[in-house]
Write a structure and sequence with these properties.
Largest sheet of chain B: 6 strands, mixed
Largest sheet of chain A: 9 strands, parallel
Radius of gyration of chain A: 17 Å
Oligomer: heterodimer
Helix content of chain A: 40-55%
Strand content of chain B: 15-25%
Structural class of chain A: alpha/beta
Shape of chain B: globular
Helix content of chain B: 40-55%
Radius of gyration of chain B: 19 Å
Order of helices and strands of chain B: EEHHEHEHEHEHHEHEHHEHEHEEHEHHEH
Number of helices of chain B: 16
Strand order of the largest sheet of chain B: 3-4-14-9-10-13
Distance between the termini of chain A: 23 Å
Shape of chain A: globular
Strand order of the largest sheet of chain A: 5-4-3-2-1-9-8-7-6
Order of helices and strands of chain A: HEHEHHEHHEHEEHEHEHEHH
Largest interface: A-B, 43 and 37 residues
């Protein structure tokens, strides 16, 4: 079974360039603006779009993404509305892969089977659920694969060679390598360490490996992307969005452009990178 | 609820850390190798007589165990029913039951070669116990505490600082215990190489609920022996307050397979169950937070709701997973006490027995005030007096003076 994610990475491999993966929070700062931002991403150079599902207690996220989730929740965002956002995006774009990223509880409460059916029909391609390690695969990973959605696993610096096979076993779409031990938006990734880690993961899988956490600038994006199949940027985009808001945290006429401009600059960086040797 | 009754209530969890559907290991991949290491280290330590002997030595000479089982004669007389025994955990070094678990975890951390200890704390009792043992063993100690709790539990903040710990006020979310736990997890994920996370209650990813329970079970085991010595038999009922539920689990677990013993857990009903409260079983449903599936307070979208209790130690929107299971299988009855009921119990115990309880066990005393009068005079009721009230004196003083 091939998903939009598989198709997109196959195209990029043919072009010999890494993917630029963006992350923004669904409903930040409000549902309508959020849809406009997400629509602007592909034309600004995003190859894959990750959309955060807001949660009150995001244990792996730094202050920027925590605040983005709280802005979205305050503006009335729910998981159901996140799926509507994807549905809205899919009206004009049937090619760009959409990956939902977040924590398990809202999905568990929504109902796993109902969520997978609704996500698939809305046009979601993959899921990254931070608090579901392979030890809990029965919960969502296996049902998601059955429903035709990619379950994208995080591999981290603490995932050693002994553990990697278990982590990769039920992973599909791509592997998300977390370049640092830490929370989102914290430290900068060291590109030589990343290069080694990606090579190590690639000894265990044929899946594309994208690298995230700690990438903020076009330069870092370029450096990291040259060692991987893609670079993920989240916090820097969320910060650009936040800096465009008014004093009450509402969208202004600059908000969509602020995100689009940084996306374009980062995309330039990523696209300047040579594809990592397969 | 239709849940199969097990042959034993004491055999859990299974190898994946499940008590029925509850428990589990819902953590980020970065932490997964660490909790597997911890599980391995704990299994080895448990089987090592030297580890047990060393721990027993410190429990006796440093913590001051066994803690007395005390017949509260004037409270018994006042309530006119069951004979009420207090398990005096408040007499432990550091003033609460928390030290039993912290000692065990710090010894595990030493065994694992970890030099930096982090902890979350609500009322500050777990933070104080952690700071104390880190001082004793020369370990770096960082305690995360919600900014709201820093404010209302100043005496404990000062104690932790005097003991050399760094107290980090947490400004995110509701700025209480749940956010302190989020922030501790964020620290752990960042400092995996040298840091041991000393969790204060029977919650979090497997194996924490089990190892904290095991370290706290000394409370119930002593109670069993002591009651046998005093009355020549088992108690008829047990009562303990529950935030995450470690003092309750410690008292209850050794008695779970004694069917004649009625067991009551008391959650914090805050302003009342129809308003802001912290009673996860009474007002919540199963969800996933902080590494485990358990009863949680949340909205229809699965967003975690603010808990409220006058007691910082109970102000948490969840409960340990084994409690959720014991609720579903019906072995333990979960009741709740409001802020006002706890305040009344706080004053009653102070005046009748000369014991100022912490606000947390004051919730248990509040339910004893309801349960004891309905039971015969030969009924033996044990309540876990899990902490002393020194830390609450300024807060309760303000409330009582404000009410006058």
């Amino acid at each position: 079974m091939s998903t939009r994610i598989d198709t997109r990475f196959a195209e990029l491999a043919k072009q010999g360039r890494p993917a630029f993966v963006t992350f923004l929070m669904a409903g930040d700062p409000d549902a309508a603006t959020s849809l406009e931002i997400i629509k602007a991403l592909p034309r600004s150079g995003a190859d894959v779009i990750e959309i955060g599902m807001p949660f009150t207690d995001p244990m792996a996220d730094g202050p920027s993404i925590q605040a983005a989730g709280l802005r979205a929740l305050k503006a009335g965002m729910t998981l159901k509305k996140t799926l509507e956002l994807v549905r809205g995006f899919r009206k004009d774009d049937n090619a760009t892969p959409i990956v939902l990223m977040g924590y398990y509880n809202p999905i568990y409460i929504y109902g796993v089977d109902k969520f997978l059916a609704d996500a698939k029909s809305a046009g979601v391609d993959g899921l990254i659920i931070v608090d579901l390690p392979p030890e809990e695969d029965d919960e969502l990973c296996l049902p998601a694969m059955k429903a035709g959605l990619n379950f994208i696993r995080l591999a981290t610096p603490t995932t050693d060679d002994k553990r990697l096979p278990a982590v990769l076993a039920n992973t599909s779409g791509f592997v998300y390598y977390v370049s640092i031990t830490g929370i989102t938006g914290a430290a900068a990734a060291d590109s030589s360490a990343v290069s080694e880690a990606v090579a190590r993961i690639k000894r265990h899988t044929k899946l594309p490996v994208c690298v995230g956490f700690g990438i903020r600038t076009p330069e870092t994006a370029k450096a990291i992307a040259s060692h991987a199949n893609g670079a993920v940027v989240g916090t820097a985009l969320v910060d650009a969005l936040k800096n465009s808001l008014d004093a009450e945290g509402r969208a202004t006429d600059k908000t969509v452009d602020a995100v689009a401009e940084l996306t374009a600059a980062l995309a330039q960086g990523v696209k300047g990178a040579q594809q990592a040797a397969e | 609820m239709n849940v199969a009754k097990p042959n034993s209530y004491r055999s859990g969890p299974d190898e994946r850390g499940h008590f029925g559907i509850f428990g589990g290991r819902f953590v980020a991949e970065t932490l997964m190798p660490l909790i597997l290491d911890l599980e391995k280290a704990y299994t080895e330590a448990k089987a090592d007589p030297a580890f047990q002997a060393e721990m027993n030595g410190y429990l006796k000479t440093y913590v001051g165990r066994p803690s007395p089982l005390y017949l509260a004669e004037r409270l018994t007389e006042h309530l006119g029913g069951a004979r009420i025994y207090l398990k005096r955990e408040e007499l432990n070094h550091t003033g609460s039951h928390k030290v039993n678990n912290v000692l065990g975890q710090i010894m595990l951390a030493r065994r694992m070669g970890k030099k930096r200890i982090i902890a979350e704390t609500g009322a500050g009792q777990h933070g104080v116990a952690t700071a104390t043992l880190c001082a004793r063993f020369g370990l770096e100690c960082v305690v995360y505490m919600g900014a709201v709790d820093v404010e209302r539990q100043q005496p404990n903040v000062i104690r932790m600082e005097m003991l050399g710990a760094k107290v980090m006020p947490v400004q995110s979310g509701t700025r209480t215990l749940k956010d302190a736990m989020n922030e501790a997890l964020r620290d752990w994920v960042t400092n995996v190489h040298n840091t041991f996370y000393c969790i204060g209650t029977v919650a979090g990813p497997h194996p924490y609920p089990t190892l904290v329970r095991d370290f706290q079970s000394i409370i119930g085991n002593e109670t069993k022996t002591q009651m046998q010595e005093i009355e020549g038999r088992l108690p008829d009922s047990l009562v303990a307050c529950i935030g995450g539920g470690s003092n309750a689990m410690g008292l209850f677990h050794p008695f779970l397979d004694d069917p004649s013993v009625e067991i009551f857990g008391v959650e914090a009903a805050g302003h009342g169950l129809t308003q802001l409260h912290a009673a996860s079983i009474a007002g919540g449903r199963p969800g996933v937070l902080h590494g485990n599936r358990t009863y949680l307070l949340m909205d229809a979208d699965g967003q975690i709701q603010d808990a409220h209790s006058i007691s910082a130690g109970l102000d948490y929107p969840g409960i340990g997973p084994e409690h959720s299971w014991l609720h579903e299988v019906g072995r333990v009855k979960y009741l709740s006490a409001t802020d006002d009921e706890a305040l009344a119990a706080f004053q009653l115990l102070s005046r009748l027995e000369g014991i100022i309880p912490a606000l947390e066990p004051a919730h248990a005393i509040a339910k004893v005030m309801e349960l004891a009068p309905k039971r015969p005079r030969d009924h033996l009721m044990v309540v876990n007096l899990s902490g002393r009230g020194d830390k609450d004196v300024p807060q309760v003083g303000d409330i009582l003076r404000g009410k006058k």
